[in-house]
Amino acid sequence: MMRPLSTLIVFLCLTLPAAAQSPFQAVVENAITEVIRPGYATLAGEAATMETAMQALCAAPDEAGLDRARTEFGNLVEAWSAIELIRFGPVRRDNRYEKLNFWPDRKSRGLKQVGDIIRSKDPTVLDVATLREKSVAVQGIGALEYVLFGTGADALGEASPDSAHRCGYGAAIAGAIRTTADELVAEWADENGFTARLTKTGDDNPAYRAPEEAARELLRAMTEELQFARDIKLAKALGEAAKKAKPKQAPFWRSNLTLRAVRANATSVRTLFDKGNFASALPDDQRWITGSVSFEIGHAIRTLEKVDGPVATAFRDADQRGLLNAAIIALNGAGEAIGTHYAGATGLIIGFNSLDGD
């Protein structure tokens, strides 16, 4: 006697193995909970501390207060550099990425705006809300660097009308950075916001139809950051020869934080790769790629730690240039390990990225 069709269908459903869940689902979820959310939270925290340091300096200007503000600026730069690789999602809304740090500042147009504000003592920049409505170039980390380290910044350690305005402007910049960072913390915490777009893939998702597509976005973020650090931050300023070096084209050269920032960039890639557990998606015979990523990034970081002296000097010194070039080679190796070998082994071919053509 033949079984009814419905009985046969039930039998097949019970006996056939369930479709395996993509390993990239967990990778994406790990990246959000272990890297992106904590990264923006750290940035918001450092921005708040920076704001407090500036307010204290403005209330009682002295050399010690200026030193504290400059030290905290270094922590802020490192926090930004650790999450800078996330160039997609909420940070792209309302030009937040550029508001946080307008760089590269081609032809120094942003710097000119900052200088004009300081020279004219524009009173409208002393209010955070008003400042945030102005150009992205005058409210981010680059603008704050000029306030603290640019021409005339040493006067912040003394009480005067000029330094009072400059200090108040710096405090407002820190407040603007904090506000933007707080917005990013809130939006990434919203389970129904962009987080849902990354984690709830499918045919009805306009951006990511499968976990692999969401993971490809993260993979692209890593390769872009390595390329950005290597080509735009280091190689362009280093030049082909010492006489062609242009250290002032490097980010944060005034505060001598260029290499600290690049080290944080490289570390952020390794952190995303490791804490996202990208290795879990590799076939067993391709697990060597994980070691290659770790080795190349570690080598780049250790080499950059050996570079001594101000950036303006190091980029023109033969021995220091040798170390910088070695770091560039290591960053390139890390980029190949992720963008070519890992992408090829997992099928996450990246293709075009936002830096192509720069």
What does this entry show, briefly?
65% of the residues lie in helices and 0% in strands. It has 14 helices and no strands.
Entry keywords:
358 residues, mainly alpha, A middle domain of Talin 1, 2 domains, 14 helices, 65% helix, 0% strand, globular, disordered N terminus
Summarize the SSE layout with pairings.
Layout: H1 5-15, H2 23-59, H3 63-83, H4 96-100, H5 109-120, H6 128-131, H7 141-149, H8 161-189, H9 194-199, H10 211-238, H11 258-275, H12 288-306, H13 311-314, H14 318-346
Helix pairs in contact: 2-3, 2-8, 2-10, 2-11, 3-7, 3-11, 5-7, 7-8, 10-11, 10-14, 11-12, 12-14
Notes on the structure:
With 358 residues, this protein is mostly helical. The protein folds into two domains: 172 residues, M75 peptidase, HXXE motif (A middle domain of Talin 1, Up-down Bundle), CATH 1.20.1420.20; 136 residues. 65% of the residues lie in helices and 0% in strands. It contains 14 helices and no strands. The chain is globular, with a radius of gyration of 24 Å.
